[in-house]
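PROTEIN DESIGN WORKSHEET
SECTION A - STRUCTURE
LENGTH: 126
TOKENS:
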């Protein structure tokens, strides 16, 4: 498998560095992504994991974007090429009762808001 090199890095790193993009840049990215998704759909491919880390800049000038990862893609009408696994966590709800929360495997829970793992931990005091 031969792929192009994304000279400009991915969109996630660019946003982390710049904090925000200008409206014209966002429009340009949206139009290019819409075209890429239409092209994939026309060829019977569904992209299953499009996010900021899987969108990259083709060149260092950051004019063109491309989809970097197609690991969760599948052909339309075919069974999925992957199956999602889940982990379960016991957490206390707002009433102090234990309940089970389910998250997909591979989700980095260090980014999850603390109140999702233990809802009463960030409650405001009256």
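SECTION B - SEQUENCE
RESIDUE ASSIGNMENT:
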């Amino acid at each position: 498998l031969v792929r192009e090199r994304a000279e400009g890095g991915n969109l996630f790193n660019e946003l982390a560095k710049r904090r925000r993009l200008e409206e014209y840049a966002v429009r340009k990215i949206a139009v290019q992504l819409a075209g890429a998704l239409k092209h994939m759909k026309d060829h019977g491919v569904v992209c299953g994991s499009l996010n900021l880390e899987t969108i990259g800049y083709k060149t260092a000038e950051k004019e063109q974007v491309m989809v970097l990862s197609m690991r969760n893609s599948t052909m339309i009408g075919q069974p999925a090429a992957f199956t999602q696994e889940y982990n379960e966590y016991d957490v206390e709800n707002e009433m102090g009762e234990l309940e089970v929360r389910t998250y997909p495997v591979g989700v980095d829970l260090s980014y999850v808001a603390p109140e999702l793992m233990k809802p009463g931990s960030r409650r405001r005091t009256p």
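SECTION C - NOTES
Residues 86-122 form one domain.
The first helix runs from residue 11 to 18.
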